[in-house]
């Protein structure tokens, strides 16, 4: 076996990805970790930094590009039960891994995939699609399920001993937990529940954003993790729920955004992104006042700051706009 083989691993920090790397390390392969950051993923208990430290490998974090929006808007292989284009998303990430592999002069890619663990992206058919469409056909090693899959090029070339790999399938994690115990791996995260796009509530928010806004960036997608969301005539209005979210909205504000807030009463910060009109300003001001602590029958001063001017709108918060928030 070539003891100088080098591989790139997609490292989330979860147990499966850690074990996949460790199994390949045990065969003398040098591994570099790649963690891909999605804009709408909140802070996760899965920490790739801690995993990389335990494994003793270098970790590189890369954020998806603005072209990731196309993956969400027009997935070639469709959505799952939610707004989750899992196969297209995996192809996108594996494409990033392929380019990273080339830069690192590595021979293959490692993932923690377990066959049939996830219904959309880890079926035998889906894995074949992902391999070919990513340009990594034969170069993706899945150590936890390798014995149930076609031998890869690194196995055929003797870089990895197939006999030391596993044939796991399904959602049970008993074998992984037993392996963790043998390795002395005790500080690892439990499954975080999957991608937020698979959840009905968050997936609905993402669907509304995609359908209402024609031009989107990664920063727009990151707004989905904060506040209540409304859309009006090409504008995205986000209303903070608490002080922490208010601060977050102020931090992510760009020079093109408009910010509104009530200073006479406790209340939210609201942010307008997209096409700005006076009608949209009034709607956002009413939302800001309605979610504040102001009496419902009061005329509330809502301060605003657009890219070009500042001012105050006096508005009654008694009635919210007819469109409900996407939450």
Description of the molecule:
This protein is α/β, with parallel strands linked by helices and 327 residues long. 33% of the residues lie in helices and 17% in strands. Strand 4, helix 5 and strand 5 (140-141) form a beta-alpha-beta unit.
Side-by-side strand order of the widest sheet:
6-7-9-8-10-11
Q: What is the fourth-level CATH superfamily of the largest domain? A: HUPs
| Total separate domains | 2
Q: How many strands appear in the DSSP assignment?
A: 11
Helix vs. strand class = alpha/beta
Distance, first to last CA: 55 Å
Query: Which residue ranges are poorly predicted, with pLDDT under 50 across at least 5 consecutive positions?
Result: none
> Helical residue percent?
25-40%
For the record, what CATH class of the largest domain applies? Alpha Beta
For the report, how would you describe the main beta sheet? 6 strands, antiparallel
- The chain-level mean pLDDT equals 91
Shape: elongated
User: Helix count, per DSSP?
Assistant: 11
Strand content: 15-25%
CATH fold call of the largest domain: Rossmann fold
Name of the CATH architecture of the largest domain: 3-Layer(aba) Sandwich
- Global Rg: 24 Å
């Amino acid at each position: 076996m070539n003891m100088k083989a080098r591989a790139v691993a997609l490292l989330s920090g979860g147990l499966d990805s850690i074990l996949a790397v460790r199994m390949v390390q045990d065969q003398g392969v040098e591994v570099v970790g790649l963690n891909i950051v999605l804009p709408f993923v909140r802070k996760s208990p899965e920490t790739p930094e801690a995993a990389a430290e335990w494994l003793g490998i270098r970790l590189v974090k890369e954020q998806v590009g603005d072209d990731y929006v196309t993956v969400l808007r027009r997935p070639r292989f469709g959505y799952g039960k939610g707004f989750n284009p899992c196969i297209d998303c995996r192809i996108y990430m594996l494409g990033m891994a392929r380019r990273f592999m080339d830069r690192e002069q590595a021979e293959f890619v490692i993932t923690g995939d377990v066959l049939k663990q996830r219904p959309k992206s880890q079926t035998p058919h889906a894995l074949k699609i992902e391999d070919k469409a990513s340009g990594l056909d034969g170069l993706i090693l899945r150590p936890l399920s390798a014995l149930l899959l076609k031998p890869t090029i690194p196995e055929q070339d003797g870089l990895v001993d197939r006999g030391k790999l596993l044939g796991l399938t399904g959602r049970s994690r008993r074998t992984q937990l037993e392996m963790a115990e043998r390795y002395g791996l005790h500080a690892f995260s439990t499954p975080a529940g999957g991608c937020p796009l698979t959840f009905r509530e968050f997936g609905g928010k993402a669907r509304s954003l995609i359908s209402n806004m024609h031009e989107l960036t990664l920063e727009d997608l990151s707004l989905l993790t904060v506040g209540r969301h409304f859309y009006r005539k090409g504008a995205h209005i986000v209303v903070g729920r608490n002080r922490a979210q208010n601060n977050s909205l102020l931090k992510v504000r760009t020079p093109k955004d408009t910010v509104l807030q009530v200073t006479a009463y406790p209340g939210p910060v609201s942010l307008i992104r997209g096409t700005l009109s006076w009608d949209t300003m009034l709607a956002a001001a009413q939302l800001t006042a309605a979610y504040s602590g102001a009496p419902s029958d009061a005329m509330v001063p809502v301060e605003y700051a657009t890219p070009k001017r500042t001012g105050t709108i006096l508005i009654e918060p008694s009635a919210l706009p007819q469109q409900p928030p996407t939450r």
